[in-house]
Design brief:
With about 325 residues, the chain is α/β, with parallel strands linked by helices. It contains ten helices and eight strands. It has helices at about 1-25, 40-50, 75-80, 95-105, 150-165, 170-200, 215-220, 240-250, 265-275, 300-315; strands at about 35-40, 55-60, 85-90, 110-115, 120, 140-145, 205-210, 225. Strands 2-1-3-4 form a four-stranded parallel sheet, with helices on both faces. A two-stranded antiparallel sheet has the order 5-6. Strands 7-8 form a two-stranded parallel ribbon. Strand 1 (about 35-40), helix 2 (about 40-50) and strand 2 form a beta-alpha-beta unit. The longest helix has 27 residues, at about 170-200. The chain is globular.
Length: about 325
């Protein structure tokens, strides 16, 4: 009886070991780190780096001081997408070339539209405007620059954390913790910005910029932005539009005039000369500065812009 029982136990243990080995073999292998992630442009790339930390390696297609509106993908960009585990794009019509690039490269991985959940800002003033030759940018009615409002970036960050967690489940808790910490920084940034503008009368909060990319910022902080260009940097204003803008600058005595880091400064410089005003320091809107510059990350970008804008508006 003892021998039979011992044989039974031996058989049971052997079976259990085989089952455990089979279960272990069925478990997915851990991902090699860092996880490759591709972001469409530099601001988005910075957000992915903050949330991903050391667990991700981020490739940015449109780099610092480069214009995503005028970007032309290269073969190296297609190779980067094929090798990535997650493609992160802004959406809202900002980079229609990104999905085309992913499709043409044969990319089979996940794509995150980081602006999911953002309430789009429509551009009714663009309706009926002649955008012939520029329709490939799809900016006629929707403003894609949602990151100009820190409250929207909170949504971006949470979306990125969730997508990274799906791509790399083992790092999900880390991504969530990083996103929570960064959301607190975004909320502090928003409160600081509100305080910078609070002392400036709303009537003096008027700014001229080189293209209409501050819509979300303007609505959130009650600032009036005027631009000779439309929402895309390749939209050319008419001579009549520029003349009307010059008259408005002179009539309302607007001295806060700024060019953007990835825009052609010639148009705004000529407009400033004709209107008798001085162009202020560069603002960073669609792209970060080079590393070590005044806008090396999203938080630095916003603080730089707010500081310059507030100083310019106080001169109005």
């Amino acid at each position: 009886m003892n021998r039979i029982f011992r044989n039974f136990l031996a058989t049971a243990f052997a079976s259990a070991s085989l089952l455990a080995g089979a279960a272990h073999a069925a478990e997915p292998l851990p991902l090699p780190l860092p996880v490759p992630v591709t972001a469409s442009f530099s601001i988005l790339g910075d957000l992915v780096r903050v949330v991903g930390g050391e667990r991700v390696r981020v490739t940015t297609l449109v780099g610092p001081d480069e214009d995503a509106h005028a970007f032309t993908p290269k073969p190296a960009d297609a190779r980067a997408i094929v090798q990535t585990r997650l493609l992160v794009i802004n959406g809202l019509g900002f980079e229609p070339w990104a999905q085309k690039l992913a499709n043409s490269s044969g990319y089979q991985g996940a794509t995150l539209v980081a602006s999911q959940g953002v309430k789009p800002r429509l551009m009714p003033e663009e309706k009926g405007h002649d955008r012939s030759g520029h329709d490939n940018h799809q900016h006629d009615e929707t403003d894609p620059h949602a990151w100009q409002n820190p409250e929207n970036v909170v949504l971006y960050v949470r979306n990125i954390a969730a997508a990274l967690g799906k791509a790399d489940p083992a790092g999900s808790a880390i991504y969530q913790a990083n996103s929570v910490a960064y959301v607190k920084e975004l909320q502090a940034l928003d409160a600081w910005t509100q305080a910078q503008f609070a002392a400036i009368p709303v009537a003096k909060r008027k700014v001229i910029t080189s293209h209409d990319a501050f819509g979300y910022f303007a609505a959130h902080y009650q600032i009036s932005f005027l631009a000779p260009q439309g929402v895309s940097t390749d939209a050319e204003p008419s001579a009549k539009d520029v003349a009307q803008l010059i008259k408005q600058i002179q009539r309302e005595k607007i001295k806060a005039v700024f060019v953007e880091n990835m825009s052609n400064p010639k148009l705004l410089a000529q407009l400033a000369r004709d209107a008798g005003v001085t162009v202020g320091p560069a603002l960073y809107v669609d792209a970060l500065s080079a590393p070590g510059g005044p806008a090396g990350g999203y938080l630095q970008l916003m603080r730089h812009n707010v500081t310059q804008l507030a100083a310019g508006m106080r001169a109005n």
